[in-house]
Amino acid sequence: MGGVDILHVDDDKGLTSLTADLLERKDSRFSVKTAASATEGLQLLDDFSPDCIVSDFEMPGTDGLEFLQAVRAEHSKLPFILFTGRGSEEIASDAISAGATDYLQKQSGTDQYELLANRIDNAVTRYHSEKQLRETKEEYAAVFENARNGLLLVDVEQDGFRFRRCNSRVSEFTGLAESELIGKTPREALGDENARAVAGAYRKCVAMRETISYTVTLTHPVGDVVHEVNTTPITRDGEVEQLVVAFTDITERYAREQKLREERVVIQQALDTLDEPLFVTDTHGSLKHCNRRALEVTGHTEQTAVGTSITDLFPDDERETMTDAIDDALRTGRTTVTASLRLDSGQRRPYEFRVHSLTDLDNNIAGLVILGHDALDT
């Protein structure tokens, strides 16, 4: 805690001067401004933001309780200590009921200022801690609510899970209102089938005690939705107490990817009908794809072939020929070359290879397609 600004309100100017001097001596962080009346104190509050107010009770015009009520109308949490020479249980009770942070009766001697300084320090420390906590909660709440992902806070209970909180994205992605989720178990909110998928992932996260990522398809009021999910455990004293579930709707993307996968399967089936070996490489000659005939001839599998250099499939004395052909195709767009493949049997067989460059959507060269025709069949 840094400097502590204090507003002391009392109609006894000699007392306020003494109190300011003694408090500032007691604690070097303290800086005291004084006001001779509640009205003056309220005027100072328009331009001054103290960390604590110390006020007398009996003052002309507006007394300390009325001053407190006026302060509380604008500053509900600001520490307010009633420091008064008039003491009674009734006044203390009224002060606390009106929202006073503390009540201290004036005594003779300077020891009371040690006590007052301690009360101020305790009140201000608590005030700043609570303020920081509120601000942190507000910041987290803003992040939570404005996140692009759907966010769920899930309580981990002895026999299952219960939704505690969600942001507006959850309703957008699912069509479920907040009232249909919060306070409910997955089965109550989502139905049996959805709950089994969700609870299974939650149990896995609790068991692993680390973030897990997964994709799940759930049926919601908006229809079947594919969720891409990250679930993170929150632990306390070694136990997982809550889960933070962040998800987004990838239904459209999943559908596009599924269509692309299906198209690739069709293309692969078409290429596998060829009786001639076909290879696809990147611009460096590294194999990206082979058809079935290419794998049969060379004795490779898809796993052992992909990532190797195309020249590794040829005898040593043919590799320079293939390297030159690749360079030529990258430069001119296409070329034809005759070279011998190294067969699965260890023998070699000549093929006439037609090499064509491939381009991406920006018309930049992305790789090569190499189709071989058995030279012995010509």
List the helices and strands and how they pair.
Elements: E1 4-9, H1 13-26, E2 30-35, H2 38-45, E3 52-55, H3 64-74, E4 80-84, H4 89-98, E5 102-105, H5 111-146, E6 150-157, E7 160-166, H6 168-174, H7 186-190, H8 192-208, E8 212-220, E9 223-236, E10 239-249, H9 251-272, E11 278-281, E12 287-290, H10 292-298, H11 302-305, H12 316-332, E13 334-342, E14 348-359, E15 365-374
Helix pairs in contact: 1-5, 2-3
Helix proportion of residues, in percent?
40-55%
Q: What is the CATH class designation of the largest domain?
A: Alpha Beta
N- and C-termini, Cα separation: 91 Å
CATH architecture of the largest domain: 3-Layer(aba) Sandwich
Please name the fourth-level CATH homologous superfamily of the largest domain.
Answer: Response regulator
Multimeric organization: single chain
Our Rg estimate from Cα atoms comes to: 39 Å
Number of strands: 15
Biggest sheet: strand arrangement: 2-1-3-4-5
Contiguous helical run count: 12
CATH topology of the largest domain: Rossmann fold
Task: Tell me the fraction of residues in β-strands, as a range.
Answer: 25-35%
Describe the structure.
The chain has 3 domains: 4-144, Rossmann fold, CATH 3.40.50.2300; 148-253, Beta-Lactamase, CATH 3.30.450.20; 274-377, PAS domain (Beta-Lactamase), CATH 3.30.450. The chain is built from 12 helices and 15 strands. The longest helix has 36 residues, at 111-146. β13 and β14 (348-359) form a beta hairpin. Helix content is 42%, strand content 30%. The strands form 3 sheets. Strands 2-1-3-4-5 form a 5-stranded parallel sheet, sandwiched between helices. A 5-stranded antiparallel sheet has the order 7-6-10-9-8, with helices on both faces. The chain has a 5-stranded antiparallel sheet with strand order 12-11-15-14-13, with helices on one face. The N and C termini lie far apart (91 Å). It is elongated. By secondary structure, the protein is an alpha/beta fold. Residues 5-121 form the Response regulatory domain. It comes from Haloarcula vallismortis ATCC 29715. Residues 136-209, 263-333 form the PAS domain. InterPro entries: Biofilm_reg_signaling (IPR052155), CheY-like_superfamily (IPR011006), PAS (IPR000014), PAS-like_dom_sf (IPR035965), PAS_4 (IPR013656), Sig_transdc_resp-reg_receiver (IPR001789). This is HTR-like protein.
